[in-house]
Design goal:
single chain, mainly alpha, 15 helices, globular
Length: about 350
């Protein structure tokens, strides 16, 4: 855990220093360093760091060597999303070393996080989005390498949703879906946002509707999953999530979301803005979905698509700089507490302890 936190601190510090500089060669060098450090940690890891590496990452990578063309490779991996396969294929054109693929995958995620920061406020929140990604998703992305791409693309797409650029939003959702089919749930962000706007003066009613929908979802989960699989929306591999046991970390995520809701009420402006409404109700949706973590592990993964946009909109809850900084630091503090708790009570999808034969640890 200490090694991860050290890397997180160094990377965040590089991004923080970069955010304080005007556009110059030194700024971009610092951004490069901020991306490089955690990407190298990901690259040097052993293949047993990350529970899904041996399940599908390594087999998919080495399957390239037995395919004579991209078409054959795609056919041999028909149940794997095309963007992930294409990324494997492009990297494999230049190297046989899977560790380089690990490096490029992590660098891609950090580049998207950087793009999010530049899109919303010209890089002023570089440090914030870096540490949010590192504390909340870094270890998981060492395992769920396909879905992590979809989550970051979905996070970027949510910016266009907030800007009312719906076509661009759905284009990015489609790309995210090609990275991981679970990203189909990103399509719910748009109608949910419309509902939030429509019911913005009836918050108690909207909260009741969301909670009722959650109860119904808990009751109808298996039936809905079977329908999506039978209709071809989800692949057959998702049959593994039927009648699955829950996920042990969902309780700390529930606490995280609950405390975030309290914090945004504390730091909001007197007038309830659209950004506040967006953050509040997507946190409520995230909370409700995460409650399903007691019956199925995939619920935690689906909640990522709803909580990540909340991290973005939280930046605009208040326009008072001191309050905004305190708000963002409070969120980071909660994420740090969550990370330390999970690192001490679980192995975070087999990423703790970190091991690397390359580094000799």
């Amino acid at each position: 855990m200490i090694l991860y936190l050290l890397v997180f601190a160094l990377s965040t510090y590089a991004f923080y220093c970069a955010s304080k500089l005007p556009n110059s060669i030194f700024k971009y060098i610092l951004i490069f360093i901020g991306i490089l450090i955690p990407s190298l940690l990901a690259a040097f890891r052993d293949l047993d760091v990350g529970i899904d590496v041996l399940n599908y990452v390594e087999p998919t990578w080495y399957n390239i060597k037995h395919s004579h063309s991209l078409h054959e490779y795609l056919l041999n991996n028909i149940n794997t999303e095309p963007i992930y396969l294409l990324l494997n294929y492009i990297v494999a054109l230049f190297t046989d070393d899977i560790h380089i693929f690990f490096f490029i995958h992590m660098a891609l995620l950090l580049i998207i996080a950087t793009m999010v920061a530049y899109k919303i406020n010209k890089g002023a929140f570089l440090w914030y989005f870096t540490i949010v990604f590192l504390l909340y998703l870094y270890n998981n992305s060492l395992s769920m390498m396909r879905q992590s791409i979809a989550i970051l693309i979905g996070m970027y797409a949510s910016i266009f949703l907030l800007e009312k650029k719906i076509l661009k939003f759905y284009i990015l959702v489609l790309i995210a879906f090609w990275a991981h089919s679970s990203a189909i749930f990103l399509c719910l962000l748009h109608p949910l946002l419309n509902i939030i706007i429509k019911f913005q003066n009836k918050k108690l009613l909207l909260t009741f509707i969301i909670i009722s929908a959650t109860i119904a979802l808990n009751l109808l989960y298996n039936s809905m999953l079977i329908y999506f699989i039978d209709s071809g929306i989800l692949s057959l591999k998702y049959t593994n999530y039927i009648d699955q046991e829950g996920f042990s970390s969902h309780k700390i995520d529930l606490l995280l979301i609950f405390l975030m809701i309290i914090i945004i009420f504390h730091y909001k402006n007197i007038k309830w803005s659209e950004y506040f409404n967006f953050t509040l109700f997507f946190l409520i949706v995230s909370f409700c979905i995460t409650t399903m973590g007691s019956i199925v592990e995939v619920a935690n993964r689906l909640a990522y698509y709803f909580i990540m946009p909340s991290f973005i909109s939280a930046c605009f809850i208040t326009n008072v700089p001191s309050k905004r900084n305190n708000l963002l630091l409070s969120i980071v503090g909660l994420l740090l507490f969550r990370y330390i708790y999970l690192a001490n009570t679980t192995n975070i999808v087999d990423t703790i302890p970190y091991s690397s034969k390359i580094l000799g640890i």
